[in-house]
Amino acid sequence: MGYELPPLPYDYTALEPSISKNTLEFHHDKHHAAYVSKYNDAVKGTDLDSKPIEEVIKTIAGNPEKQGLFNNAAQAWNHSFYWQCMKPSGGGTPTGDLAKKIDADFGSFEKFAAAFKAAGATQFGSGWAWLVKEGDSLKVTKTLNAENPLTRGQIPLLTMDVWEHAYYLDYQNKRPAYIDDFLSKLVNWDFVAKNFANA
């Protein structure tokens, strides 16, 4: 059955100057494609081949013998989700029910933004920052390497990739500048709101 590499939901130049065509070509066409290819090769001919990738991730999480498979499965999923979290001329603030819930759970959008920026900036090494729904509450969290909230019973609403290959060609070692641009210029709040409504 296989897990397909989704095309980017925008043109390679659409996120410039915040994220360059060069970065997207390497990140999507090389990094993401490699995770998808390795995942498909690993599950081909096994009982996992017919299962949705989300189910595979949850099933094998925490199994040391399946760590390699987990890394490729989770990174394939994380990246597919990440691309949708951005859009041309994105950023700003959410509206509607999502905005009200962020205000209720964090105190204000500004407090959410500070928490999200801190999660991304303080994730040592490689990983991800997330806005998730856990029970009835919204939370900001961060994960190391390929880990994601699906294995913690949380529903991902938004993610930001803080692996160096996500920003280094454009920002070098200035991860905080990438994080600021992500929130102010890139976030696809329509996608986040849809995830919230479906959660």
Shape: globular
What is the overall number of helices? 8
Helicity range of the residues?
40-55%
What is the CATH topology assignment of the largest domain?
minor pseudopilin epsh fold
Main structural class: mainly alpha
Name the CATH superfamily assignment of the largest domain.
Answer: Iron/manganese superoxide dismutase, C-terminal domain
Q: What's the story with the biggest beta sheet?
A: 3 strands, antiparallel
Portion in beta strands: 5-15%
Please report the total strand number as a whole number: 3
| Low confidence ranges | none
Mean pLDDT: 96
How many structural domains in the coordinates?
2
Cα distance, first to last residue?
A: 27 Å
CATH hierarchy, class of the largest domain: Alpha Beta
What's the CATH architecture of the largest domain? 3-Layer(bab) Sandwich
Spatial order of strands in the largest sheet: 2-1-3
Backbone CA Rg: 16 Å
Order of helices and strands: HHHHHEEEHHH
